[in-house]
Amino acid sequence: MTRPPYDLVLRGGTVLDPANALHARRDIAVADGKVASVEPVIPGEMAMQTLDVAGLLVTPGLVDMHAHVYVGVCPLVVPIDEVAPASGVTTVVSTGDAGAHTFAGFRRLIISQVRTRVYAFVHISTIGLAGWEVGEMVNLDYADPDKAARVVRENRDICLGIKVRQGAQMVGDHGLEPLRRAVSAAEMSDSPVMVHIGAAPTPLADILEMLRRGDIVTHCFTGTGRGILDGEGRVTDDVRAARERGILFDVGHGMGSFDFTVGEAALEQGFPPDFISSDLHSGCVNGPTFD
């Protein structure tokens, strides 16, 4: 008996594939762990196994642009292989879990061990988030642009850029200096900055003024103050101008960094996010960050 060419056929699902501009009912064949064919109809006898997925969405593996996964170094993390597959996520970006002094361990203990594909923004703090709950920028001695830039340059295959958190709890009395150092590191490594906003000690306009094309503002729908809306609930001119300059905006839901009223107002005013990420960590994985 001749073996069918495919191991599995998913039949009748609605395929969402933005890369190929596809949003339609399709059958999908899998062989040797890879998608082998996408067709309107693939006969069931062509596969060892068929699954009826009519009424369900079938997508490529999802990418979560903001998560925390450095288990064993910071309690504000999740074991990513235990949570990502159930959400259809195959790739995550660790945003600042590791700094220059802890990145080698992150690569060896996490990236090389998990099945989920992991990329990273390296924290401007040399210790990353290992000191949580103490703000990592309260002591500016930890903010070392040269070391952060070197980590990015030496790990181009997995390092996407520099992370800095600009909340008042994280920066203490240092205002915009952590961001200045993060931008310096990003310029030295030719990479973007991801900046955490919300409850910042400085106006958002001052933060945006320092950012460059391709830099990312995360927690863009925060309701903790000094966000993208003015006092009358309108998206500010500074925020719109930043988008025109090529600044990107990320949801970063998390535990207390997303406000539905802010998000709804932004969407009503034609200001959607560029990324919808989870900011998944131990404080939100069981709620309020739900699939």
Helix count? 8
- The CATH architecture of the largest domain would be Alpha-Beta Barrel
Strand content: 25-35%
The first-level CATH class of the largest domain is given as: Alpha Beta
CATH evolutionary superfamily of the largest domain: Metal-dependent hydrolases
As a percent range, the share of helical residues equals 10-25%
Query: How many discrete domains?
Result: 2
Poorly predicted runs are none
- State mean pLDDT (0 to 100 scale): 95
What is the succession of H and E elements? EEEEEEHEHEHEHHEHEHEH
Summarize the helices and strands and which ones pair or pack.
Elements: E1 6-17, E2 22-31, E3 34-39, E4 47-52, E5 57-58, E6 62-67, H1 80-83, E7 89-95, H2 103-111, E8 117-123, H3 145-154, E9 159-165, H4 168-171, H5 177-189, E10 193-196, H6 204-210, E11 216-218, H7 237-244, E12 248-250, H8 260-268
Parallel strand pairs: 1-4, 1-5, 6-7, 7-8, 8-9, 9-10, 10-11, 11-12
Antiparallel strand pairs: 1-2, 2-3
Write structural notes for this entry.
This protein is an alpha/beta fold and 291 residues long. The protein folds into 2 domains: 6-58, Roll (Urease, subunit C, domain 1), CATH 2.30.40; 62-268, TIM Barrel, CATH 3.20.20. It has 8 helices and 12 strands. The chain has helices at 80-83, 103-111, 145-154, 168-171, 177-189, 204-210, 237-244, 260-268; strands at 6-17, 22-31, 34-39, 47-52, 57-58, 62-67, 89-95, 117-123, 159-165, 193-196, 216-218, 248-250. The protein has a 7-stranded parallel beta sheet. Strands 1, 2, 3, 4 and 5 form a 5-stranded mixed beta sheet that branches. β11 (216-218), α7 (237-244) and β12 form a beta-alpha-beta unit. The longest helix is centred in the middle third of the chain and has 13 residues, at 177-189. The mean pLDDT is 95.
